[in-house]
Amino acid sequence: PQPNVHLEQGRAIARLPSGDSVEVLLYGATVISWKSNGKENIWVSDAAKLDGSKPVRGGIPIVFPCFGPPPKDHATGKLPQHGFGRNSHWEYLGSSSSESGALAKGGDDSIKLDFGLSHQQLSEDTKKAWPYEFGLVYSVTLAKDGLQTMLNVTNQGKEAFEFQMLLHSYWRVDDVTRCTVNGLGSATYIDKVLDAKEQQQSTPELRITGEVDRVYKSIKQDITSIVQDGKSRLDVQRDRIVDSVIWNPWIEKAKGMGDFEPNDGYKNMICVEVGAVDGWQKLEPGETFEGGQILKSHL
Ligand code: TA6
């Protein structure tokens, strides 16, 4: 049988002959499920809104054109935290299946879904808040045990603009206290839980024993792995981007989010996010930026 795609309830669902599948909500072009070998790789809160009333708590929200609360004196200053990518209605542009590309190995087929968002599709308020003519194409490619999500940004206007981008991925784990995040040894990071000072990680592994909110910059090694009980569970490879955020809200912050359920759900997730969030990417008219993640599941 061929890979297949179908649209239902405002989402695009792709399935491979192997049974691996991916589900993308058109709202925010948010990946809300990626199953490999019948097991779910993605964490989504039981109280996540999937009706477009607010960004999905979980999945892979697209952060664009700003990461975090935007600086007031910056062109993105009037946008909400993490920008508008994750709370806009994207267009499904279609699918293509292929036997080539970064993911399809050894003849396994892969299927690519494309989603689009441009200036014209934004609400009037958002257009006013950030009046630049941009075009986004987000590609989600499913292969056996693999997923690739890539954001392509084009400046379609006459003025240069600056942006940040980040794929705010919530990964599912059985027990975060039995996990380590590997591959960030000696990388430089800002610790948003402590005093937002720049630090250098001294250990090869990051253990999660409390709230973690770290912005790693210019990471040399392109693969960051989630390891549970000493066994690699998920490899996250940065593709043409070099920054990552590691986040776990832990007990208090999890309780403080109305759409984060169950309250102890922090034990079953870890955000390993890839992006370009250190400073700003500048796009001249007509220029394009592309960056994303290549994921390998060992579930
Ligand atoms: O990626 C980590 C982070 O920036 C945290 O500081 C926290 O704010 C998280 O994103 C969630 O943000 P949200 O706007 O989705 O509640």
Automatic annotation (TrEMBL):
UniProt keywords, alphabetically: Isomerase
Record-listed substrate binding positions: 57, 81, 86
GO cellular component: cytoplasm
A GO term, aspect molecular function: glucose-6-phosphate 1-epimerase activity
Active site, renumbered: 168, 273
The UniProt record lists the keyword Cell membrane: no
Gene3D superfamilies tied to this protein: 2.70.98.10
InterPro entries documented for this protein: Aldose_1/G6P_1-epimerase, G6P_1-epimerase, Gal_mutarotase_sf_dom, GH-type_carb-bd
Biological processes annotated in GO: carbohydrate metabolic process
SUPFAM superfamilies associated with the record: Galactose mutarotase-like
Lineage top rank: taxon: Eukaryota
Reaction catalysed by this enzyme: alpha-D-glucose 6-phosphate = beta-D-glucose 6-phosphate
EC number assigned by the record: 5.1.3.15
Function description: Catalyzes the interconversion between the alpha and beta anomers from at least three hexose 6-phosphate sugars (Glc6P, Gal6P, and Man6P).
Family: Belongs to the glucose-6-phosphate 1-epimerase family.
PANTHER family xref list: APOSPORY-ASSOCIATED PROTEIN C-RELATED (PTHR11122), GLUCOSE-6-PHOSPHATE 1-EPIMERASE (PTHR11122:SF13)
Protein name: Glucose-6-phosphate 1-epimerase
Organism this protein belongs to: Extremus antarcticus
Lineage of origin: Eukaryota, Fungi, Dikarya, Ascomycota, Pezizomycotina
